[in-house]
Amino acid sequence: MSAATPGSPTEREPELLGQTVVLIGGSAGIGLETGRRARAEGADVVLTGRNPERLERAAQEVGARSTAAFDATDPAALKRFFEDLPDPIDHVMVTGPGPSYVPLLEMDAEQVRDALGDHVVLGLEVARNAAGKMRPGGTLIFMGGTGGRKISRELGLVSAATAALPPFAAALALELAPVRVNLIAAGFVDTPLSASLLGEGLDARRDELRAKLPIGRVVGPADVAALAVHIMTNTALTGATYDIDGGQQFAPG
After folding, report:
1. Which strands, in side-by-side order, build the sheet including 134-145?
2. Res. 158 pLDDT band, cuts 50 70 90
3. What is the pLDDT of residue 253?
4. Predicted confidence band of residue 1 (pLDDT cuts 50, 70, 90)
5. Into which CATH architecture does domain 20-247 fall?
6. Taking CA 139 as the corner, what is the angle to CA 63 and CA 146, rounded to the nearest 5 degrees?
7. Under DSSP, is residue 215 helix (H, G, I), strand (E, B) or coil?
8. Nearest CA to 198 among 246, 207, 242, 34?
9. Given a cut of 80, is residue 179 above it in pLDDT?
10. Domain edges within the chain
C-alpha cells in the first residue's frame, strides 16, 4: 500500500456514522437543515412535524430513515412516538415551539402559563420519554434565543421564558448524565418561520441585519445546523448555552 503524498486529500470518517438523530420539528428550517447536515455526517435521521405532506417532502430531501407526523406539544402523542421508536438513539433536537409576542396586559392566565412554560414543558416531556432509549454520551439539544434577553414592551413574556432556558438545560444535564443536554440560543435566523412572522417586512429586516451585524450577513439555518452537529459530536459539551446570532445582541439598534 502506497503512502499518501504530502498535501494530498485524506478521507475523513463521517462523525455521526452509525448514530441516530431525531429531529422534533424537522420538516423545515433549522430542524430540516440539521437533518441534512447529520445525514452528511453518516447519521440515520428521524424527522417529526405536524404537517404530513411537508414532512414527507423533507424526508425525501435528506434521505430520512423514517418520519412521524404529530403535535409534539401533545404529551400522549409524544410518548407514543418514543415508545414506537426503535432504540438505541443518540441525539434528539427540539426546534419548537416558536415565540409568541403578546402584550402583557392582553394575556389571559392560560396564555401566561403557555408563554412561560412551553419550551420547558416540551423539553421535559422529550427528556422523560427519550432518556431511556439514548446511548450514553448522546445529547438533547433545545432551541432558545438571544433577542429575548432585551426587555421591551413588544416582547412581553418572551424575555422571562428566554431567561428560564439556560438553567433548565443545565439542571437537566445533571439529572440525565451521562446523556448530555445543551441549549442553542439563536438570534434572527432566515427561516420560513421568520418569513411568516415578518411578512412583507422580511426583506427590510434582512437588509438591516446585513448592514449592522459584525459578520456582514444574515444567519441561516445551515449555520445553526453546523453548531448542532458539533454539539452532537463533541462529547465534552453539556449543560451549556451556545449563542449564534452573528453578533446581533451586541450590534447597535
Report:
1. 66-69, 44-49, 20-24, 89-94, 134-145, 180-186, 241-244
2. confident
3. 63
4. very low
5. 3-Layer(aba) Sandwich (3.40)
6. 95
7. coil
8. 207
9. yes
10. 20-247
The residue written with cell numbers 402583557 in the block is: 104
C-alpha cell read off for 246: 452573528
Smallest CA-to-CA distance from 51 within 75, 69, 33 is with: 69
pLDDT (mean) for 130-158: 87
Taking only the tens place, the pLDDT of each residue in 51-64 is 999 999 999 999 99
Nearest alpha carbon to residue 162 among 107, 101, 218: 101
CA distance 93 to 105: 33
**Buried/exposed 180-198: b ≥16 CB within 10 Å, e otherwise:** bbbbbbbbbbbbebbeeee
Q: Look at 113 and 223; give whichever has higher pLDDT.
A: 223
Q: Which residues contact 253 (CB under 8 A, 6 or more apart)?
A: 208, 212
* AA identity, residue 32: L
CA 247 to chain centre: 19
pLDDT in tens, 35-49: 999 999 999 999 999
